[in-house]
Design a protein that fits this description.
Radius of gyration: 21 Å
Order of helices and strands: HEHEHEHEEHHEHEHEHEEEHHE
Shape: globular
Number of domains: 2
Number of helices: 11
CATH architecture of the largest domain: 3-Layer(aba) Sandwich
CATH class of the largest domain: Alpha Beta
Structural class: alpha/beta
Strand content: 15-25%
Distance between the termini: 59 Å
Largest sheet: 5 strands, mixed
Oligomer: single chain
CATH topology of the largest domain: D-Maltodextrin-Binding Protein, domain 2
Number of strands: 12
Length: 285
């Protein structure tokens, strides 16, 4: 093939795969400590597709609510969010369907006040657990899930306020993911020294976390999907996951807790089951 033919073939190939010629800057808004791993995954996927060109990350609109972040994405003022999937989110946005948290966010422990530790330790059934009032974010998509499963929930749009509300007795338990509970307790305990992670109970519901982009942004979605395939194949995604979460998983001691399973009626039909084999032995189920 002569040089002109080679250039023509290469041009057609790049046109068919738009992400390969993409120069970009990826804007995101989730900058709190509990999102550090998700940002690291995003950078890893972009690095794994470096042939597409440099694509630096830029934090924008930090500190806004989840609903506002989703609106900014749909307005074209953000490029990517990482959130648990729901039917509504998959209708409104384009998902990259791989659970970057490998099922971890669906396993929940409870932040409680120390003086109630004995009351929670006595729980043996889901019905007994429903006697306690939970606190939760009003814009978090799993709020309806808790209500569907029969829990009485006090909610607020301001996540930071929930710790003070728990300390003051506005509710009795604050469910947090394994990747959130101890991190947040460390951040809040100087202000609220009576808070603790309850040591005997855990909840589980399917709650896969995807990257989402705007419906029309197929180029970024394809690039992230390819980066995911490469990071899974070479083990770098698993290594990153364990670097961020290995100590927390051991600290949670899931195999020693009474685990209550909840239904998730808002999960899109056909959602792939999260692959927990990186971190959750079968004996822990």
């Amino acid at each position: 093939m002569n040089k002109r033919g080679t250039r023509l073939w290469l041009g057609l190939w790049l046109w068919c795969l738009p992400w390969l010629a993409m120069a970009c800057e990826v804007r995101y808004f989730q900058t709190e400590a509990r999102y550090a791993y998700r940002t690291a995954v995003l950078k890893l996927l972009l690095d794994k597709t470096a042939e597409a060109g440099a694509c630096p990350l830029r934090a924008e609109f930090t500190g806004v609510t989840q609903d506002r972040g989703l609106a900014l994405l749909q307005e074209g003022r953000l490029d990517v969010v990482s959130m648990p999937t729901t039917m509504a989110r998959e209708r409104a946005m384009r998902p990259v369907r791989y659970d970057i948290l490998a099922g971890l966010l669906g396993y929940r422990v409870l932040l409680i006040n120390q003086q109630q530790q004995a009351a929670f330790a006595g729980v043996r059934t889901l019905q007994q657990l429903r006697a306690f009032t939970f606190g939760f974010g009003s814009q978090w998509a799993d709020l309806p899930l808790l209500q569907y499963n029969g829990f009485d929930v006090v909610s607020t749009p301001h996540a930071e306020a929930l710790f003070g509300m728990l300390a003051r007795g506005r509710f009795e338990a604050f469910p947090r993911g394994l990747n959130e509970a101890w991190l947040e307790l460390g951040e809040q305990q100087a202000r609220y020294p009576t808070l603790m992670v309850e040591p005997t109970l855990a909840l589980y519901y399917p709650w896969p976390v995807y990257f989402f982009v705007a419906r029309e942004n197929s180029a970024l979605a394809e690039r992230l999907q390819l980066g995911m395939q490469r990071a899974l194949a070479d083990g770098s995604l698993q290594a990153l996951f364990l670097r961020y979460h290995g100590d927390l998983i051991r600290q949670a001691r899931l195999g020693e807790r009474r685990l209550f399973r909840l239904a998730n009626p808002g999960l899109p039909p056909g959602t792939p089951e999260s692959d927990t084999q990186w971190w959750l032995p079968v004996t822990d189920l």
